[in-house]
Design a protein that fits this description.
Elements lengths: L10 E16 L5 E6 L6 E2 L4 E5 L2 H28 L6 H26 L2 E3 L4 E4 L8 E2 L6 E16 L9 E6 L4 E10 L9 E8 L11 E7 L11 E2 L5 E3 L2 E8 L2 E13 L2 E6 L6 E2 L11 E2 L3
Antiparallel strand pairs: 1-8, 1-12, 2-4, 2-7, 3-6, 4-5, 6-8, 8-11, 9-10, 9-12, 10-11, 13-17, 14-15, 15-16, 15-18, 16-17, 16-19
Helix pairs in contact: 1-2
Length: about 300
Amino acid sequence: MVVTPQANAASSRYVGTVEPVHATPLSLQTTGRVVSVNAKNGQRVKAEQVLLVVDNTQALIALNGAEATLKQAQDGYDRVSKVHSKGVVSDQQMVEIESKLAQAQSLYETAKRRVEECKLVAPCDGVVDGLDVEIGQSVLPDMTLCSLLDVSGFNVRFTVPEAEIHHLPQSGEMECAAVGKSFPVTLREKRVAANLLTHTYDVVARVQGGTDVLMTGMVGKVVLEHSDISRQPSDIVIPARCILLKPEGHTVWVVGNDQAVRREIVIDGYQADGVRVKSGLRAGERIVIDGYQKLYNGCRVIE
């Protein structure tokens, strides 16, 4: 390939993915067999709407037993309290009766809660996503059954090379080819820990508008304009696959006068479409990007 500088060194471009402003994973606190599924992916639901139900037979049996125990304890308390004031029952016996009633009330409330836990309820308004549960399937506690997406707005998540993370502009735009539109974006957060393999940081930007056409998972090109061009890194970008790591450093094969020569370069960082070169290459030079495994200095290269 012929080394050429990027067309627009005053802007940085990144490929990002559209995501909702918030996604809440939903799960049950009990084990059970699914008996009904009342929602589907992409469906808008309201807060407190039941999404699915698991078999509550055992929970109802426990509730009925707890209710009977509570009724018995309440009747005993009512009878004893009538004669306590007359001195027929001691204070100690009265305390024991009150304690049994409190225990029965606690057990009843716990059993009642167990019945309610057999229902997966939407905690807020949103859109159901990732619901892949069938009737008859057994589920476990804390097993994520689906997510509830807040699509009142969207974010776009993309990765930024370490060399650019400290002077990243706070605003720009996202071009979404799927809908044929561009939307203003504003930086919302930057991760403080880098990916150890790619040396990039996750960045999230808030998308302004697009709630009527954007969908989770769409791909967008984020373009951030720099006001200070002098702070930009090198505008020469080459494929990462053509760079060889040797004891002397990073090298590439440069072709001149139909001969291959290995040359040391200094890289300036990584980005989605390749590696930026700080020094060692000039615009217009030719480099070998494939089939360099058998090359040697002075090897003739025929194009």
